[in-house]
Amino acid sequence: MKIRSKEEFIDLLDKELSWRKKELTFLKGKIIANSPNYKTYLRSGILLLYAHWEGYIKISCEFYLSFVKYQRLHYSELRENFIALCLKNKLTEFEQTNKATIHNQMIDFVLNRLAQRATIPNENIIKTGSNLNSSILREILSTIGLDYSAYELKNNLIDVILLKNRNSIAHGQFIELDDVEFNELHKEIIWMMDDIKTKLSNAAVLEEFKAKNNCAQQQIGASGGSVVN
């Protein structure tokens, strides 16, 4: 997918989150203690909540990579995380080989080719492994240049309350969760999805994908474009 404008990118983020929220809200309304099929809806709620959590993180970050890719910047204009992403295969080859030719090519690139237009990969980069725990989320956000610190206190919620229960259900095991705990989990996961959407939107508006000197100049000279709240 080619995403060239900030408006298109933000619109895609909004639409992608909107339909997911509607499904989750509908199912949450069915999870009422002592009602018929309560346990069935509860188990289904955990599975759907995890599915939308993983799905939204993956696709929203892929949208962002596509958006940055089609800004058609030079390597020297990008922040370090995007340069590292562009050079991922070269860095791996550099580390694993003893060939002087490979080493020389890498050094030549760093010294002489940063003025070239960047080729940013955006397919098969965001990998959750169907097991989106806090460590994987941290790496995904680091890949695209977002700060993970706001979610540090959510590690247990992600890894144990959501992921462990989801895995237990997927393997046909019993879970202890009740409707009160599910409602709290639902609230926290929706908050994180909303927060990541806001961070991605702001990153696009403020052009945080650019090298710091370029980004600062852009913000000083810009009179339009507001931060999304």
Could you explain the architecture of this structure?
With 229 residues, the protein is an all-alpha fold. 65% of the residues lie in helices and 0% in strands. The protein has helices at residues 6-28, 38-69, 80-86, 88-96, 100-112, 134-144, 155-170, 179-205, 212-221. Helix 2 (38-69) runs parallel beside helix 6. The model has no long low-confidence stretch (mean pLDDT 89).
Find the structural class using helix and strand composition.
Answer: mainly alpha
Average pLDDT reading: 89
- N-to-C span: 26 Å
Number of domains: 1
Shape: elongated
Question: What is the percentage of strand-forming residues?
Answer: under 5%
SSE order, as H and E? HHHHHHHHH
**Sheet bearing the most strands, described?**
none
- Count of extended strands: 0
Rg value: 21 Å
Total helical segments: 9
* Poorly predicted residue ranges: none
Give a brief rundown of this model.
With 229 residues, this protein is an all-alpha fold.
Descriptors:
single chain, mainly alpha, 0% strand
Give the helices and strands, then pairings:
Blueprint: H1 6-28, H2 38-69, H3 80-86, H4 88-96, H5 100-112, H6 134-144, H7 155-170, H8 179-205, H9 212-221
Helix pairs in contact: 1-2, 1-8, 2-6, 2-7, 2-8, 3-4
